[in-house]
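Handout, section 4.2: multi-component inputs.
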Amino acid sequence: MTLTIILLGAAALIGIGLYGALSQQSFVMLMMGLELMLNGALLAIIGFWSLSLGGMPEGQLLAIIVMAVMAIEMAIGFALIVAVYRKRQADMTESIGTLKQ
Amino acid sequence: MTDLLVTLLAAFTVWTGWRVFRVDSMVRASFSLMLSFIAVGGIGVLLSAPYIGVATVFMMAVEMMVMAIFMVMFMMNPAGLNPMSMVHQHRFSIGAGVVAALGLGAAVLLSSPPSNPVLSDADVVAELGHELLGPSMLIFETAGVTLLATMVGAVILSSRQGRFGNADEGSRPPGLSPDGEPAGRKPDNGGEGHHHHGGHG
Amino acid sequence: MIVLLALAVLGTLGLGAVLVVAMDGRIAQLAGQFARQRIETEAPDRLNRDLAPVWYLALAAAGLSVVPFAPGHALLDSPVGIVIWGTCEALTIVTVFLHGWAPNAPFPLIGAYRYVAIALPVMLPSMFVLIAAALPAESLSLLAIVESQREIWNVARQPLGLPLFAIVVLTLTLRGPMDFADAADIATGTSADESGSARALWEVARAAMLVSASALAATVFFGGPLGPALPGPVWLWIKTAALVAAFAWLGRRIARTTPSRMLTILWVVLLPLSFLHLAISGVIAL
Amino acid sequence: MGLSSPDPASVFAAIGPGWQAPVERLLARQGLRRALTPRDAGILLVAGDMPGTAAEALSRVHDQLPHPRVTLRWTIAEETADAVAERIAATWRDLRAGEADESDHLPDQPPNEWKGVGPHGQGGKGMMGGTPYGRTMAMTGEDIRDGLQLDRYTARIGPFAPMLPPGLVLEVTLQGDVIVAASVQSPPFAQPADADAPELCAARMLTLLGLDEPARRSIRGRRPSGFWVRGAVPRDLGRIKDAGNARDRLAAFLAGDSPAVAATDLSELLPGLEWSEAMLVLASFPPSSILRAAPIPEAA
Amino acid sequence: MQTLIIILGWTGLAALFVRATQQPAGATAPQAVPFLGGGTPDAHAWQRYHFRPYTMTLVFIAFEMEMMFMYPWAVVFVSEGIKALAEMGMFLAILSVGILYGWREGVFRWQ
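Output:
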């Protein structure tokens, strides 16, 4: 019962995150969507670890890894945004295509 | 009781997650996302994962603070003084989001994961510590290397002054006195860069 | 028992905040301010303006809740007490930022960003110091940290800890050398456009946070409720009051440098010092 | 110190020509407190005869005080500081008893017409256009330090800003908290040599360093105490030919000297500095040298 | 559960306290102008704020992840002994390289 509620919440978070990541024109808002999807993943991991896996330590480790992925995604993502903005004065997702030249 | 609290927190995390894309102010969007993470952390605390739960709040408070800084830095109209909407392929995105949520939700309802709750007297923090230093030692050290690569990558990408001097010459600030050295950042950086703390000539 | 502990936290916070304000000689001043007009700036973020002092007070109370008032008795008897305290620190940064962001005015905005730049790296020494204190206790719980100090207080066993933590306390409470949010050159920064009861309330919240942080320092470095003859809570109060006085005195005496320079100092001097502190504490604990 | 300490009168000082030193000495007294922002004050102390150019700014500062508020004038050189302190204390008692208040000087009008425009009544158009809630939004521009073209915020600061010399109106353009352009709109008010007194100059810098109590001690002619006072000023800040840097000048002030500083053009001195650094540099000049540095506007 | 209820309780109490002590905020147009020493601004203060140490914050969030590993490490430090010291020493040494690199590139000050 508890696990079902948690997993439904996680599914909704992933859905909202996917919507945000696909629909936002701005790079930073797109990253919000990604974070939200990872948030859903985190929620699901916590639920599984606690209610279905009997507290395997690997479950906690996985949650930490998800958080590390978020941190890395943010650091590299924002650094990329700064680099793009410096070149193009824009933070739109479209402008990254023109950066490749 | 626990079920009720978990339901409330799950509803809260979904609602604040939705608010992220509905509010105009970037600061509110960032901290709405932070509230979403806090609710997830709260669920963790409820489900006898005290360390992971609290640490989620701890890490995400910091990360969303940084998120807010960058959101305000690079978004037009960061405070949402004018109402705005910066979306593309809107219908498709809504469809994708709904399909993903419904699909995952259906999978959840149809499957029946084994019920094997964590023992209430288990010292989960110590277990994690032994795991980190024992079987998962390699993961732990790999994470260190990955984080190092992240730091170096972030510095290279975002910092303008490269290894061989500034990427930008020609925008040197004026001197502190008419014929003095330039104010602001000096182009000659490198090993002793930290000596000009405020960076003034 | 829980009710008793909750009352102890509330009483300590309330009376302690009064004590802090009294030590600054500002009781009458703040009392008068509560009656004055509260000015609203142009197009403010009302929600965050009203919530910032709420968070600040709630964080002070939550931080104090993990502090044991007697050996074995804390309101928040959590196995991860110091992580909860670290979370309070992180959320305090958010709170101060929101306080400066909300009025939509230049000086508060500068203060808010300046504070974030300084307070984020300050979290690193803070975490290292608390983790070092957890090493001999073999637990993240403050109850265990108190128990581990029965023989010798951490202040003697880990000498670098208290000075490093003093910086953290001054940052969290916006005092003296670390008061980058409310500096004089930006006309009291995040509070520059706040008047009357809102201004006084922010001062009260700062005072409450000082009590909370001092109580934590008393627990981590001075054995908290441990002591001869007197009951545990009394020892905690004595130690907390002494630390409050010490931190307030330090805050009035040390000069504040420019934010850019302080940032460099934090990363280049204080972070290696906290590495060193952790290494020393680790070797001693083995 | 202690529970019995009385409520000091909270005074925001609008200092006119020639009154900087007397006002600074007055507000360092026991029982008085110099507010750094009018939001924190109950009494507006107007010292000296204000030139007509500063009248509107004075009204603006007056209106920014929260109610209840009272204006006091100190314009007669014969009136001693003791007498003014008495007057302030009496007014403060009235104020706390709720027996005095003043209404706004300026009309209650928003800076721009905006009500009712736009889909949410916010007054702006599109993403960045119009005047939402009565003001425009800042626009991007060149940056002189790291080349990220983010918003430039332009404002006129002064003549009664407590961190600037009285009378100085600076039009500054900020990117973040770094000054990217500065121009002097009106020079500081002329002050007699008394304002250059080393203990006053030291007190101004000590206030910026967060040492309020030592600053008051310095004004009262006692030795200010504090840790890391000189060291807190960055070493390379505000270096001027023949007059050392800001740290040297602070050391000289503390030792009781008032170094002569050559005139420097503020619009060249300030850009590139972070705001707190800029304020420290300005405070490290005696008022007379800032007056010489500011260009005299063409005779009106 | 107790943890959660206590923290929520403090938040509620703080909100009640703030509600009880605060007067309604309001101002006339000249009162509401942000304080600039008598001067006036051109635009809203809310802007694409050029936060100067932005690279520092990126290094910070990467470095701060190490805390996640350090807390559980601290709990088992004494029981694992010298091995724990060595492994964490290596981990911190790896991350310190990043700090040193950032320092050398001058990211720990206002850009």
